[in-house]
Amino acid sequence: MQTNVVKQLNDAMQTVMRTAREQVLAKMGNKLTVAEKTSRRDLVTNVDHSNEDFLISQIRQLDPTAHILAEEGTGDRVTSMAGHVWIVDPIDGTMNFVHQRNHFAMMVGFYVDGEPTLGYIYDVMANKLYAGGPQLGVTLNGEPMKSPADADLADGLFGASAPLLIQDRFNMQAVVAASLGPRIMGSAGIQISQVLAGELIAYLSYLRPWDFAAGRVLAETLGLVVTTLDGSPVDMLSSGAVLIATKRAQRSILAIV
Ligand code: 2AM
Ligand code: CA
Ligand code: CA
Ligand code: CA
User: Fold this and answer.
1) What's the gap in Å between 181 CA and the centre of ligand 3?
2) Is 115 assigned to a binding site?
3) Which of 6, 40, 237, 247 has a CA 20 to 30 Å removed from the CA of 72?
4) Which atom in ligand 1 lies closest to the alpha carbon of residue 239?
5) Which ipTM score applies to this complex?
């Protein structure tokens, strides 16, 4: 896409994200309706649904012929990354949203013929909006972000996933042992934003497309790498282990997992 068109879309989407945040904050003043999806650890609330509906309606106005993949199911059935594809996670960290009223994000990723084009991670309570893409760079609340230092695993904090660490999947305990220590937030979006900011050298988790679509765009724009555990490119339409890391940390982690 032409850079001026991407820039216009980015300006419009940042406004959409800020409006979505205001609506979520307003709804947090009312009692939440919480439902279990597949288990007591897999929740969805009325706000997940209303925010998904809002984001989809706004994206449809900006990009009427696009395909939209969204976690809670009100989007399209997307089976190909051809053309314009938007990937939406209306509340990332729903468990935190319900139990902490904090540490959750909203995320949107935009791909054109499979190419990462725009990404948004909004840490709602911290009011930190990470936005941009390869043609524009990444901003945090409008201020350009620099690429994080290319620090190695031994010199940084490692963003872990609770189930993978407890079950020692992918040798995660050895990865943690080789780092300065693990950190676990319960929100893929917030942990990925911490990698963008250089607060973590990596994040490794089992993720679904909406968990990493936005983060991949932003991370790659900042010179970070986003791969599966054999170092190959991620598939935006499937779920699996995804590693978001500095180049150095990625090499060290892939040698351990
Ligand atoms: P969610 O809140 O949007 O569901 C920690 O739970 C992180 O992993 C959150 O970002 C959460 O996103 C995501 N997550 C929760 N359950 C998951 C599952 N079964 N598979 C993949 N990711 C999951
Ligand atoms: Ca969920
Ligand atoms: Ca999620
Ligand atoms: Ca979600």
Assistant:
1) 23
2) no
3) 6
4) 21
5) 0.95
Residues 88 and 212 in one domain: no
159 lines ligand 1 (CB under 6 A): no
Supply the residue whose CA is at minimum distance from atom 2 of ligand 1.
93
Q: Answer yes or no: do 133 and 25 share one domain.
A: yes
Most distant CA atoms of the chain, gap in Å? 48
- Answer whether 0.95 is exceeded by the pTM: yes
- Average of pLDDT values for 169-197? 98
Last residue of a domain, one of 144, 163, 183: 144
One domain, residues 188 and 119: no
Q: Is 76 annotated as a binding residue?
A: no
- Overall domain count for the chain: 2
CB burial of residue 169 (10 Å; 0-12, 13-18, 19+): middle
